[in-house]
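For reproducibility, we list the full input for the pyridoxal-5'-phosphate complex.
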Amino acid sequence: MQNMTRFSLRLADLRSRISAACHEFGRNPEEITLLAVSKRHPADAIREAAAAGLHYVGENFVQEAIGKMDQTADLDLVWHFIGHLQSNKTRIVAERFQWVQSLDRVRIARRLNAQRPFHAPPMDVCIQVCLESEPGKGGVMPSGLATLAKEITELDRLRLRGLMAIPPPSDDFEVQRDYFRHLRALRDDLVAGGLQLDTLSMGMSADLEAAIAEGATMLRVGTALFGPRPGTGA
Ligand SMILES: *Cc1c(COP(=O)(O)O)cnc(C)c1O
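The corresponding predicted structure, in tokenized form, follows.
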């Protein structure tokens, strides 16, 4: 029998973190989907993840992702775009990805809607929300969320699934939790307004316990699964 690979050791570690947090905060692990964030890792890393049963893959850069899709075309994977989406890349994203989690402008939503191939199912989308007081690296400000959500639900080739956020990094569990509680409250407001949303995409390698505590249904995990990203040492 083969020794456990570094990947399978990391995955086992990650699963035990998730189940400990679920136990502590009264969550059912089956309600939580793991998205394997493979940016800057090679296609072989995705292959290893798929062999271990992970089929949701997240990528930030379009060209990089397309290369890996072509190299893993034999696998049954669901690709999520989680990076900043420029309008000149919407067509290829509409054609090659099933999810976009980083939607934050109606103009991009309309382009994806128009460019989604007719033979494909509607695109699953999350609105990315900026949880900081200043608009920064992406995400709609909470004050603009309800309008954007309404505009997206009027587009029949998009299916609004929920919200995503990348809070500023903090080592303080309570601070992490405050950000995620805010995102959950924003989701609850939309649901109270009549939208059907099933996804709260929040929590990464460093803050997934706090996200689980606040109701995350999708964790986007890179480093804790694949190790440090090659390249910039991040
Ligand atoms: C890179 C990235 C992640 C994964 O981050 P890790 O800290 O490596 O787990 C999750 N979400 C988004 C949007 C990312 O860009």
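The chain has a mean pLDDT of 96. Residues 37, 39, 60, 82, 166, 204-206, 220-224 surround pyridoxal-5'-phosphate (CB under 6 Å). Both points were considered when choosing residues for closer inspection.
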